[in-house]
Write a structure and sequence with these properties.
Helices cover 49% and strands 12% of the residues. By secondary structure, the chain is an alpha+beta fold. The strands form 4 sheets. Strands 3-4-5-2-1-8-9 form a 7-stranded mixed beta sheet. Helix 13 packs across helix 19 and helix 14 packs across helix 17. The termini are far apart. The relative contact order is 0.06.
Length: 424
């Protein structure tokens, strides 16, 4: 707080206030004891901010969000403003600065985001008496929900995320119906922006509630419909007691939460790992359901997801694809030939693969609680042996076989290194 007071004092010298908005106020009013960002706002113009504070960067320079640095700590600060919105439901066409806190407040999305904490006077400014919404554990759109969504339809996803993150109740029982009727408008938003909001939702410990809300409100009908089909996919009664695959997936994600995993790619892999089951399930003569080669069917589906429904970086796509393609194969590693098993364990995502296996397997009946730890121990021992092993390189092969044709050097290098790998 010392650096924030310093910032406020510097702005006060030019007769400008500094206020904290957003998550800090929410956490403080709700007595939530966890880390939050300090988002600042002020009536000072960008030029005035630069005159007294060290500006290190500008985000979306057209909309004047500045990054300032006070000692070692960086903060975002914006000038009070009024937005004039475009028809693309995403970004304002024009920003008009204002000196009036009340005008800045009414352009915000939710009422708890329109509460201002005066740093120097140590008090809240609540221009429209919206602190009572937080005290009543209520989430409310500022004034009219439809107008707020007209300005930025992405607020629809922010509503789902923040409602669950803070455990709030909707101020109006019509919210869900309105959101359900407008959720298709998200197709006008870039996939990258939607994925950013979903990432925040999925990595949070309240992800189960948020995912159920997304499903109930029809999000998956327009984005990743394969997920919508999971509740229509029967579970394998001999090994799964959950009832359907959607419940199994949610329980697997809950297991990730308990393990305190923070890798978003593992969460996505867990969410998507069984989407191939809907198109592959069949019943045998005894009424038991089977999903033959569903993990390979998933690979085809994932190509559709990353090309049509969602944005994944190349690195994330490769990792998620590897995890799902091999999430069944991993438990057979103990029966593989040594060189094949060693190649398998050399993949940089192998440890994550064991994690996915663990959360997928824990809900089976009966669960094999020994396989995961056994695979982890096997992998740790392999890594130790691997670290003590020297492999040959291109020059080594040339020295060993000076008369070898260039076209054969790579083949011989692989051959020799495979021999070494098989001995590890």
């Amino acid at each position: 707080m010392k650096n924030l007071i310093s910032i406020a004092q510097k702005l006060d010298r030019i007769w400008r206030k500094a206020y904290i908005v957003w998550s800090y106020n929410v956490h403080k009013i709700l007595n939530r004891n966890f880390w939050s960002d300090f988002d600042l706002t002020t009536p000072a113009t960008p030029e005035e901010i630069r005159s007294v504070l060290k500006v290190t960067w500008e985000i979306w320079s057209k909309y004047w969000t500045l990054i300032i640095k006070e000692w070692w700590q960086a903060f975002e600060i914006t000038t009070f403003r009024k937005d004039i919105w475009t028809v693309n439901h995403r970004k304002p066409a024009e920003v008009i600065f204002t000196e009036f806190l009340e005008e800045d407040a009414i352009r915000r999305d939710f009422t708890f985001n329109a509460i201002y904490y005066d740093i120097l006077e140590d008090r809240y400014i609540d221009p429209t008496w919206w602190i009572k919404d937080l005290e009543n554990w209520t989430i409310r759109f500022v004034w009219d929900i439809n107008k707020r969504l007209d300005e930025d339809i992405l607020r629809l996803l922010r509503y789902i995320r923040l409602k669950n993150k803070y455990g709030l109740n909707p101020a109006d029982n019509r919210y869900d119906d309105i959101i359900r009727s407008r959720i298709s408008e998200l197709e006008n938003i870039s996939k990258e922006r939607i994925k950013q909001e979903l990432d925040k939702m999925i990595i949070d410990k309240t992800n189960i509630k948020a995912l159920n809300d997304l499903k109930d409100l029809g999000f998956f009908r327009f984005f990743i419909p394969h997920i919508d089909n999971l509740s229509l996919t029967p579970g394998w009664k001999l090994m799964h007691k959950e009832g359907n695959v959607w419940i199994h997936v949610l329980l697997s994600i809950e297991a990730l939460n308990r393990m305190k995993i923070k890798d978003i790619d593992i969460f996505w892999a867990t969410l998507l790992h069984d989407i191939g089951k809907y198109s592959t399930y069949s019943y045998d003569d005894f009424g038991n359901v089977h999903y033959f080669r569903h993990e390979l069917e998933w690979v085809k589906m994932f190509d559709d997801i990353i090309s049509k429904d969602m944005y994944f970086s190349k690195k994330s796509a490769r990792k998620i694809s590897y995890l799902i393609k091999n999430h069944i194969r991993v438990w057979t590693i103990e029966q593989m030939k040594k060189i094949k098993a060693n190649r398998f364990m050399m993949d940089r995502y192998f440890e994550d693969l064991i994690t996915l296996y663990d959360v997928d397997n824990i809900w089976k009946y009966p669960p094999d609680l020994e396989c995961g730890p056994r695979l982890k121990k096997m992998h740790e021992e392999f890594k130790i042996r691997l670290s003590k092993t020297d492999f040959l390189n291109w020059n080594d092969i040339i020295k060993m076989n000076p008369s070898l044709k260039w076209s054969m050097i790579w083949y011989r290098l692989k051959q020799e290194n495979d021999k070494i790998l098989s001995r590890i």
